[in-house]
Every structure is written in structure tokens, then in C-alpha cells.
From TrEMBL:
TM region(s), chain numbering: none
Full protein name: Undecaprenyl-phosphate 4-deoxy-4-formamido-L-arabinose transferase
Presence of the UniProt keyword Transferase in the record: yes
Domain (Glycosyltransferase 2-like): residue spans on this chain: 8-175
Upper lineage: Bacteria, Fusobacteriati, Fusobacteriota, Fusobacteriia, Fusobacteriales
Superkingdom, natural source: Bacteria
Record bears the keyword Transferase: yes
This protein's UniProt keywords: Transferase
A Gene Ontology molecular function term of the record: transferase activity
Length: 262
């Protein structure tokens, strides 16, 4: 049987980019992906209207769905919403493509066609490995990312090429026990997920992607994020069991809920 693949696009105030992201979903992608969900995290810029108009004008009703979070859960929380959706609807694989049009789903297409992604629990896009292409990314940020990739590789005991690109694929099977539910809802979510994958011995493979920054607006506060990331990494290194026991969230949310917007 053909695998059920969910494509998840998180959206927050990226009205100018979200339509371009949806336009990436051409006939080739439609042959490989079972369903697309755009999860809006409380946008105030008219992004939901843009998505609904795109769905209607391109006859994608039913294939592309727009969901709105009950409240602002941040990016990590939106991923939890989408993880639950994938598990509850019996998907086999889960793809995340950020809604700000920095990544391109077609970088993953060759691996979807060949079936290589099936060999791994997490098949992760990398901006910083051989074959990757970066556009509009400063040399300073590139250097900083490479340094952090090296630090994480040393502490986690395996070569890591990117700590958090916006194009990744997961095997839904590893998400069913919701080991991630106490992880931060902030941008720290992906970093903790890598530590968890080290702890749970997930089978991981990186693949090169194209990454560009044109009219995107970054929500990353680099210095604060860098310091916080190191604190999490050092804490994990000295107490790996904390991945199972620690409550990382500043705000406890019992249920990450979203409703479909029509």
C-alpha cells in the first residue's frame, strides 16, 4: 500500500510568503503527498484569507486544509498540533515545510520518489552540508550555525549538519507516545528534539536543501537563543534522563487544539 504522507505548513504573519509556499505544491508533489494542512498560529495580517482564497481558486478543497490554533502556541506548539493530527489520522510520514518561503519542498521530492526517506525515523534538511545552497544568509549567521552544529555533534556523539531547518520528514511511528509533549513551545523545540533523538536512538539522516532569505521577517533573537540553547545542551549532557522527566514549558497546556477554518 502507498504510504500516507502529511505535509504540514506552519503559518504566522507570513501573508506575503504563504501563497508562494502553496504554489510549490504542484502535480509532482500531489502525487507523493496525501494531504496538506496549513496551521495558523493566530496571524493578524490576513494570511488565513490568502490561504482560503488559494484553496478555492485552485480547486484544492479537501486536499489542502487550513487549521487555526485555539491560541498562540508558538512554532513548537504548532508542531505538536500537527504531530497529533498525523497520529490521529493514521499517517505514516510527516513533513514540515515552513510557511515563510525559505525552503522548497522540491528538495525533498527526489528522496520521496526513491523511497530513501523510509529508511529513517527522521530525514532532516540541512542548510550547511555539501550540496546545500544558501541565499541571502549572512556569513556571520552561517559561521555561527556551523559552530553550533559542531558543538552539538560533539556533545550528542554524532555528526549533525543542521539544528533546525524548515524542511524535515518524520516517521509518524516515533511520535505516537508523545515523548515531545513537555518540550518547549518556543523556537527551542527543534533543539530539544535533536537531544531526544540522541536519547531515544532515532535513526537520522540529513539531506542538502536550498535556503533563501528575501522578504522574510525573522523572529529569532540570536544572542538569547544561542545562550539558551547551550544551557539546554549542557543540562542534557550531564542528565540525559531529563529528556523524559523535565518539564521544559513555561506555560503548561493540557491539550494543543486547532479547528478547521472554512
Amino acid at each position: 500500500m502507498k504510504e500516507k504522507i502529511l505535509l504540514f505548513i506552519p503559518m504566522y504573519n507570513c501573508k506575503n510568503q504563504i501563497t508562494r509556499v502553496l504554489q510549490q505544491i504542484d502535480d509532482t508533489v500531489k502525487e507523493l503527498v496525501t494531504e496538506v494542512i496549513v496551521v495558523d498560529n493566530g496571524s493578524t495580517d490576513g494570511g488565513r484569507k490568502a490561504v482560503l482564497e488559494y484553496i478555492k481558486n485552485t480547486n484544492n478543497t479537501g486536499f489542502i486544509k487550513l487549521l487555526k490554533n485555539r491560541e498562540n502556541y508558538n512554532l513548537g506548539g504548532s508542531q505538536k498540533v500537527a504531530f497529533s493530527y498525523a497520529v490521529e489520522n493514521n499517517f505514516d510520514y510527516f513533513i514540515i515545510l515552513h510557511g515563510d518561503d525559505q525552503g522548497n519542498i522540491h528538495d525533498l521530492v527526489p528522496y520521496l520518489k526513491s523511497g530513501e526517506y523510509k529508511q529513517y525515523d527522521r530525514f532532516l534538511g540541512s542548510r550547511f552540508m555539501k550540496g546545500s545552497k544558501i541565499q541571502g544568509y549572512s556569513k556571520f549567521r552561517t559561521f555561527g550555525n556551523r559552530v553550533y552544529n559542531l558543538i552539538f555533534s560533539i556533545f550528542l556523539g554524532r555528526k549533525l549538519y543542521d539544528l533546525g531547518a524548515g524542511l524535515n520528514c518524520y516517521k509518524v511511528k516515533i511520535l505516537k507516545n508523545k515523548f515531545y509533549i513537555k518540550f518547549p513551545d518556543s523556537l527551542m523545540f527543534d533543539y530539544i528534539m535533536l537531544m531526544a533523538s540522541s536519547y531515544y536512538k532515532h535513526n537520522i539522516k540529513f539531506f542538502p536543501i536550498t535556503w533563501r532569505e528575501d522578504d522574510q521577517v525573522s523572529n529569532v533573537r540570536m544572542l538569547n537563543q544561542a545562550i539558551t540553547t547551550l544551557k539546554y545542551l549542557f543540562s542534557f549532557f550531564f542528565n540525559k534522563k531529563s529528556i523524559e522527566t523535565k518539564e521544559f514549558r513555561k506555560k503548561i497546556i493540557d491539550n494543543y487544539e486547532a479547528t478547521e477554518v472554512k
